[in-house]
Amino acid sequence: MMGAIGREVSAMTERAMKIIRFGLTERVEHFLLLLSFTILAITGLVQKFPEAGLSLGLIRLLGGIENTRSIHHISAIVLILLSIFHIFYVGYKIYVLKRPLSMLPGLKDVTDAIGLLKYNIGLSRQRPLMDRYNFGEKIEYWAVVWGTLVMAVSGYMLWNPVLTTRILPGEFIPAAKMAHGYEAILAVLSILIWHVWHVHVKHFNKSMFTGAIDLEEMEEDHALELEKIEEGVWPPPLPPARERWRRAVLYLPLAGLLAILMLITTYYYFTERTAITTLPPAPVEEAYAPAAPPGLPTATPAPELAQEIPKRILWRQIEPMPVQSHLVDEARADCQACHGPYAYIDPGPLDHAEYANDGCTECHAVAKEVSQR
Amino acid sequence: MNVRSSKFEVQCPKSKVRGRRYGIRKTQYALLLMVLFLLLSPGVALAQGDPDPNRPTNDSCLVCHAEEGLSMVLPSNEVLPLTMDAETLDASAHGVHASEEVRCVDCHNDMAGYPHADFPDVDYRTWQLKMSLVCGNCHEDEALDRQESVHARLIAAGKFEAASCADCHGSHDVQWADPEKHEVDRMHMVNACGQCHSTIAEDYKQSIHGQEAAKGNADAPTCSNCHPAHQILDPRSAEFRLQSPELCGQCHADEELMRQYDISTDVFDTYVADFHGATVAIFEATEPGEITNKAVCSDCHGAHLILPPTDENSSVMSANLVKTCQRCHPDANESFTASWMGHYRPDWRHYPIVTAVQWFYWLIIPFTLAFFAVFVSTDAFRTIKDRRRKKAAGDDGGNRQGGERHD
Known about the structure:
Chain A is an all-alpha fold and 373 residues long. Helix content of chain A is 58%, strand content 2%. Chain A has a two-stranded antiparallel ribbon.
């Protein structure tokens, strides 16, 4: 029976060999998902592994860690808005348009998986005939649902730990951090292995961008769906316009209300202050608090101001007349050199400035041997 | 006569401050210093090299300067005492201990000869700061290091009260800075710094580090272990803030050292693994000049008044933790404090939820990857095989459906 289709399509033109698989909405959703996921993964992994040289390079490229986090947060908001939209969009398709639940996993997926494995290793000669979404795609879709849920919930908790711990015990924060990091690794590895293999390496499946899929790929991955299309039973007909209208009137306001509620919660959660934006308050007081005024060289008394004494006049107070002094020998013959009013050692009063050396001993006694000259 | 206290330089073994950060600038500062010497004090520059053995001895200075009450009035009206006694000089590091004789004129090299030159400055402090350049004649490395310090920068900015050599070391009674090497009381340095930083010194003395240091415990850090003696960084600077966890880690990540005190060395790793520490580490690597508001060790534990978490006054003691968290997270409550795992690694007894999450992923990740690996590898194997067959069949103009051929 597959052979018949093959022969039939081989007669058609290349263009006709494609089947429309995804509408514009799904393609835009996928594009936003791939965009936000990639940015989240990159800006998140560099934070999880900051010790790696590549991470630091990327952080520099993104303008520092604070910028990197802002980008991560903005992408997270995009993903959360997309998720909210997706929930209500799927609800609309199921409730209003009465589309079948083709993404729901069933027993057939298990048998398909076993069947394909058997076929792959040569235990079976028949590739299982798979429906609209095969088990591989269902694994991926539900992995994204699970991953987004875990990442969003743990991400909310990490983004606003203060608000979270009002409701939950504090231990949930490090638990959320643990989950956020490991789930990220799981998600990225899943995409790199499962997704890249199935839609980039095995075939380059462009249907998420162009909307159309090759017939050959349909036969391989969605043989059952193709059969139903050929038979004209897929996709099932829409309900009558009247019923759709009746259901839409009920669904849309309710969904809109719920969506607005979710948006408000998200907004509140992400804008609530968690920490101060400035430096933490200094743990110490003013650093300069001298115990005593900075002093003169050690082993010497502290300075004091000598207001009364004219500048550049030596300070030592001399009682009316010194009666005892040193020898006056050749080396010390010039009295004024040491004792002149402007000299450094034992200065005399200002009015002595003009006195000659000879006259000094008239008033000032000197050491005995010399005075007996 | 290059007097070096080499042990002092390695007090912060992991500090990269010396070589890496300031290596290039050293030559610039050497030049600057030389220019300063030439401009300010021609005599100082000449004093470099081997000292003249015929220069005046200390005794010849002390002929006059030993006299009691000798002093002079400076242009600023300050009175500068000029009396010096031989015992003080002899008891100093420059006295009996010095490997070579240090004479008065080696430092006061513009005062050789009599009558002396006029006092060269307006006030005492200006002159003292200029005199501190003389120290670099022999203690070159220390003087060069000091040029980068916060004190030198403050002096350059006109804050003359900032410390220069003699303020910490003393002048005529100068002592070794390395208390361990010379069996000086370890608190000697704390008191020296406390001359200007009295409140900090008091905090330090009350801290566990200060208490231990006062007992003579050589493991306990004093001022210079965290603020390297000559290249003191401005502790308010971004660099210092970002480096500070590594500073604490020098001792607190040292297993051998910490074992003696029964302190976990996980503190550093768990800090870096967590949000605050990871951010600080990233900042240090990517934006070393930027201040980050993420907590470093001292924000929770205090900088100088560090107490063990068992002390009832400790900022990280469980009863005080909310207050400490609230300094940065003003709306935090009691439950929020439990979100910090207190430097512990998750285990079933203390953190069952975290550990459960961890084990969930430790199981689910390998399981998922194994499942993917089995599927993708067999699928790849089959796909390649089918395509080869299809290609061969295609060449014969046969069936396009690789898998269907055997129907």
